[in-house]
């Protein structure tokens, strides 16, 4: 395989560790914090996790290592969507494991949780690990979205671990994956299986965070990658001066990615789904909001601009949510077959019109035909509309175009509106990790092994104080159950990690809110440029603006 000069150089990068983890394995001891309880539904969560609930938070500090020395065999999986830095979590875990005892073994199970079920694995060695240091992607062992949630699955995983004498598993994933980690840890504890489970917080969406987890890994690199592209688009827009760019970015359930990208680039428009839901904004109101910016800029002779749209925006619009719910009901069961059998769109439209309420039909009629048809494309496994397939950036630009036509007739707008569309998603998931993510992920992996060494289970690897230089970071662990509550999923109450949405009273949104009126009318673009790996720390090791505002 031919290597790029950057890849060769990144192999040589030595990730920075928190000072307490740099003391050497023999000089790391545990400081116990207070006992914990779940974020909500304490009695229900406690009942579901009697063996792992309520444990203490812990931090590592300099001191005599009091753990019992023993040979360790550890398994690791990557679960869910890719995020920059996953390779370094595994590298940090491997290095700590080998530094403790060169005979320790790390098994990488391929393809995510299914690798544990199928006993499909690789035994890591130096030569294999060294090919993936400080690189993006999850191709070191692959990932998958299989859920570990049944007693039968747990028993198979236990048998796989027993076969290889594995005494601990590290699950690198997002909120669902770490919920699975907590459930698996509880099963092993109840069975006295002697298998520990440790989680690591991953997702570029940024919604796996709370008072303990300041940032999920991958968010830093992904948003900087998107911000570079948006900055390039803005410079092009400011050069050509004739296009409005509608840029959709990843983040279905929360708008952290859109907000951070906007904070870095200062576009004319950025929609925040949580605000749309809070204010119950309609499609017409959103169209007016964007069209106001287009018209105000056109009055200055600027027929160009940039709008950032979060991927899941339509789910936050109350009237659209109502429409989706009615469509799901309309096509439930055999009715879907009857609809699909209709030969023309005109007949399908009549079927829809007869089945929706007048209120829902009024919303549906507003939509461009291409978007109308997207709502009736491929369904998810539960027969529901796949909202993520809706091209919301095109939907909004079409609504704005119609809005501006009416303004022209009324004589309140005389500009030109030429929209272009972009979707930034997969471009950011496997980028070379920034120095921050390279350091953070390596620390998470190294720290995960320390939790294993001291016998913890059902814990999340925790590294905090992240807005400060890496040597000031604080390493430790927290029980996963602390982040959990009960939610209704598929008709049943389920314990899940609570997603963190954009806080409308939080400092990042308040900063954005204070500046967006000026950004909407003036050209205040910032061009972040590419991620930098060498140079001054203020350039190469900077955190996201979100984290800086939240922590300072």
In summary, what is this structure?
The protein is 43% helix and 16% strand. It has 552 residues and is α/β, with parallel strands linked by helices. It folds into two domains: 17-218 and 433-489, Rossmann fold; 222-428 and 506-551, Phosphofructokinase domain (Rossmann fold), CATH 3.40.50.
Structure, described:
The protein has 552 residues and is α/β, with parallel strands linked by helices. The chain folds into 2 domains: 17-218 and 433-489, Rossmann fold; 222-428 and 506-551, Rossmann fold. It has 22 helices and 16 strands. Strands 1, 2, 3, 4, 5, 6, 7, 8, 13 and 14 form a 10-stranded mixed beta sheet that branches. A 4-stranded parallel beta sheet has the order 10-11-9-12, sandwiched between helices. A two-stranded antiparallel sheet has the order 15-16. Helix 13 (318-330) packs across helix 16. The longest helix has 22 residues, at 219-240. The chain is globular and about 80 Å long.
């Amino acid at each position: 395989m031919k290597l790029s000069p950057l890849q060769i150089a990144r192999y040589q990068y030595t990730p920075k560790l928190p000072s307490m983890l740099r003391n050497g394995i023999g000089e790391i001891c545990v400081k116990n914090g207070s006992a914990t309880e779940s974020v909500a539904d304490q009695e229900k969560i406690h009942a579901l996790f009697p063996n792992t609930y309520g444990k203490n938070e812990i931090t590592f500090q300099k001191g005599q290592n009091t753990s019992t020395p023993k040979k360790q065999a550890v398994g690791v999986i990557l679960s869910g969507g890719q995020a920059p830095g996953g390779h370094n979590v595994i590298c940090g875990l491997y290095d700590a494991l080998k530094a403790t005892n060169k005979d320790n073994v790390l098994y990488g199970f391929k393809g995510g949780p299914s690798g544990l079920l199928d006993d499909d694995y690789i035994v890591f060695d130096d030569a294999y690990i060294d090919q993936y240091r400080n690189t993006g992607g999850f191709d070191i062992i692959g990932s998958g979205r299989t859920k570990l949630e049944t007693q039968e699955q747990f028993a198979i995983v236990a048998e796989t671990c027993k076969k290889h004498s594995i005494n601990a598993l590290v699950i690198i994933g997002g909120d669902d994956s770490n919920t699975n980690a907590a459930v698996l840890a509880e099963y092993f504890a109840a069975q006295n299986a002697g298998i520990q489970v440790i989680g690591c917080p991953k997702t570029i969406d940024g919604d796996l965070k709370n008072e303990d987890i300041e940032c999920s890994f991958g968010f830093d690199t992904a948003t900087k990658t998107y911000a570079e592209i948006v900055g390039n688009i803005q410079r092009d827009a400011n050069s050509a001066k004739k296009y409005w760019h509608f840029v959709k970015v990843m983040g279905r359930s929360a708008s952290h990615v859109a907000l951070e990208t906007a904070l870095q680039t200062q576009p004319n428009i950025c929609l925040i789904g949580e605000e749309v839901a809070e204010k119950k904004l309609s499609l017409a109101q959103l169209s007016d909001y964007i069209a106001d910016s287009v018209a105000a800029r056109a009055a200055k002779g600027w027929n160009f601009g940039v709008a950032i749209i979060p991927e899941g925006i339509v789910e936050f619009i109350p009237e659209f949510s109502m429409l989706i719910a009615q469509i799901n009901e309309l096509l439930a069961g055999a009715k879907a077959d009857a609809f699909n059998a209709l030969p023309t769109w005109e007949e399908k439209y009549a079927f829809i019109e007869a089945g929706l309420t007048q209120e829902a039909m009024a919303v549906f009629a507003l939509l461009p035909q291409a978007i109308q048809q997207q709502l009736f494309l491929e369904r998810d496994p539960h027969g529901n509309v796949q909202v993520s397939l809706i091209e919301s950036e095109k939907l909004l630009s079409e609504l704005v175009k119609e809005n501006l036509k009416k303004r022209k007739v009324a004589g309140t707008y005389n500009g030109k509106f030429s929209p272009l569309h972009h979707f930034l998603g997969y471009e950011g998931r496997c980028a070379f990790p920034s120095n921050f993510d390279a350091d953070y992920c390596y620390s998470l992996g190294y720290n995960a092994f320390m939790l294993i060494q001291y016998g913890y289970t059902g814990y999340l690897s925790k590294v905090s104080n992240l807005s400060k230089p890496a040597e000031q970071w604080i390493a430790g662990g927290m029980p996963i159950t602390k982040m959990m509550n009960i939610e209704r999923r598929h008709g049943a109450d389920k314990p899940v990690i609570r997603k963190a949405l954009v806080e409308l009273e939080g400092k990042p949104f308040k900063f954005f809110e204070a500046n967006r009126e000026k950004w909407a009318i003036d050209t205040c673009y910032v061009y972040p440029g590419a991620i930098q790996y060498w140079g001054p720390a203020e350039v190469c090791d900077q955190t996201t603006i979100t984290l800086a505002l939240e922590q300072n």
